[in-house]
């Protein structure tokens, strides 16, 4: 397996993973909610999240690793002063979810193909297009006719004014406003083919 670059403090990344042999990760709506609960537990304290989408056999997130002064151990005295490894936290997320699903459905073995893949996000244009790409995935994979109807993405949470762990205001600032955020998604729906090759995740 190709060695993955370390996630660095302050940088933005598209992270993604899929089911082992494209196995279904989420068999029931409760499974999606469980994964997000575990994500909040293991990842939210150490990375800012800008968008996400959970699909039946793969997941996408756009994150920014928090600065070094945040990535410090506080709970374990013997590790005082040691930076939290976000890669380790991502592994905890996948392992915890796998254990719960294996127990619930009486299955054995790994559930995810590999650990999270990642691509660094290095420009505003890439940032905007990646958010759109992540949200459009359910329609791209013919799971639904209109991506905005998919219940397991951040599309509507970013439009809402309800409390969220997402970096909503920062996302809307990148787009300019809620209206431009919506317009960007609507206008690019007809041009997904030209954007996808720039964003598509590597094999993992």
Automatic annotation (TrEMBL):
Q: Which InterPro entries match?
A: Transposase_17, Transposase_17_sf
Which species is this UniProt entry from? Pontibacter populi
> Can you say what this protein is called?
Transposase IS200-like domain-containing protein
The record's section on Gene3D superfamilies has: Transposase IS200-like
Residue ranges of every copy of the Transposase IS200-like domain listed in the record: 8-137
Top-level lineage group = Bacteria
Q: Which SUPFAM superfamilies match?
A: Transposase IS200-like
């Amino acid at each position: 397996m190709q060695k993955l670059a370390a996630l660095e403090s302050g940088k933005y990344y598209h992270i993604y993973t899929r089911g082992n042999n494209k196995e279904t990760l989420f068999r029931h709506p409760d499974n999606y909610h469980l994964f997000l609960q575990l994500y909040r537990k293991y990842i939210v304290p150490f990375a800012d999240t800008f968008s996400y989408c959970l699909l039946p056999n793969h997941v996408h997130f756009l994150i920014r690793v928090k600065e070094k002064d945040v990535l410090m151990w506080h709970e374990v005295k013997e590790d005082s002063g040691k930076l939290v490894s976000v890669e380790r936290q991502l592994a905890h997320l996948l392992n915890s979810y796998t254990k719960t699903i294996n127990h619930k459905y009486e299955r054995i073995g790994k559930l995810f193909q590999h650990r999270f893949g990642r691509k660094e996000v290095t420009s505003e244009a890439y940032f905007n297009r990646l958010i759109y790409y992540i949200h459009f995935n359910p329609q791209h994979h013919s799971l639904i006719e209109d991506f905005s109807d998919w219940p397991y993405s951040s599309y509507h949470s970013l439009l809402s004014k309800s409390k969220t762990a997402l970096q909503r205001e920062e996302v809307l600032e990148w787009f300019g406003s809620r209206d431009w955020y919506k317009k960007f998604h609507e206008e690019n729906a007809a041009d997904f083919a030209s954007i996808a090759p720039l964003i598509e995740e590597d094999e993992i």
